[in-house]
Amino acid sequence: MRYHDLNKSNTVLIVTDFIVAFTVFALGLSLTEEYYSVSLPNIGESLYFVQLFLFSCTLQLATLAVGLYNEKLRATNKGIAIRIMVAIGLAYIMSSFIYLFIPVSSFPLLVCELLYLLAAAGLLVSRHIARSTDYTNFNRRRVVVLGAGERASLINSCMKRRADRVNFDLVGYIPINGDSRDITSTVPRVEIMTSLDDYITDNNIDEIIIGADERRGNLPTDMLFNCKLKGVLITDIIDFIERETGQVAVSHINPSWVIYNVKPSGNIVERLSGWMFNCIISSFVLLLTWPLIIIATLFIKIEDGVFSPVLYSQKRVGRQGKVFSIYKFRSMKVNAEENGAQMSFKSDKRITKVGAFLRKYRIDELPQLYNVIKGDMSFVGPRPERPEFCQQFDGSIPYYSQRHDVKPGLTGWAQLKYPYGDSLDDATEKLKFDLYYIKHRSFMLDVLILIRTSEIILFGKGR
Q1: Confidence of residue 124 (pLDDT cuts 50, 70, 90)
Q2: Which NCBIfam families has this protein been placed in (predicted)?
């Protein structure tokens, strides 16, 4: 089973990175001890474990932040090396910042630097070994799909790339009565000459995906029960896609899904604590980014003139359909919407040169910290859309209004999982991820999204 993006493959990397951190820490201390008059902590001392914990945690948080625990990451060896060096830099900055606020003595001059250089070398070696040995095999399961019709074809439509299937080997589709007959994408077809449970045992199947178009009277319930008793996982195809892709198949769910899976709003204590958490994070981000805010203001003025507006506001739809004003750095020409509301697209000529840079690294979103503090938005949630487009999408996309069950956010699950899009199809795809977030939202998921948003900002994956 998976917890969002955590599985056996990720666990292997996490454990391996901790071993690298522990080895580097012990080796670095032993190499530098004789060159310093101060005494360094020895194994068994509490100070040793405190410093090891800080060193390992900052290193692994930074590794997570740059996407190195993403098994579906498509990057060359050079790209992996760059991410490792960025992670080392982030970890070094975080550890230096932490030492300013905790009553633990830091390492002598150059010792800390040596530790992170050794960590960089260790991570380069461990990632090279992991990639060359195809570490994802630790988590691969042999699966068959019971059904070969329209519902079963969701696997091919939602998981087209090889990277989407790193966790399983699809043995094939087993046709049953009631399947749509004009589906050609559900291949290879599996013809069972024996009973289903014998086939499952003989072919070492780990999981059966129920993808039948018509279940009533067509599912071999007794055989499925026998497979269940033998330890085979039985999973509905909607749940399988949700687990493997982090999205909900919008076009194949029914109203009962909303009834049973959308969490109700929390009580006043939960809402208040959530607002306080968002205010604290907003204040912290504002403290770190105020120089960027000043620089962005100056460059907008330089490009468009001293008297040009720096900020602009737009009406957006928030929780429960409430309309509010969102604030952003202006990234388009002053008269960008003189002909009415238009969706922005990737090569939009209305975007200024400074605006393109601000969008790429999400700097244009910083004024929305005010919206977070005000309570209109959260740090994590579905991105708020304009009322004009919400009306259009609500009439065309099933369950689109459900994304308004929670506060909109500065960043979200859809922003991590789906590239920037400007069409109705893109809105549908992003809704699949928004519904996944609404179903699974929790404090830990919000923290995961916040950490992984760093990858979008650092590597310019914003719009």
Answers
A1: very high
A2: EPS_sugtrans, EpsB_2
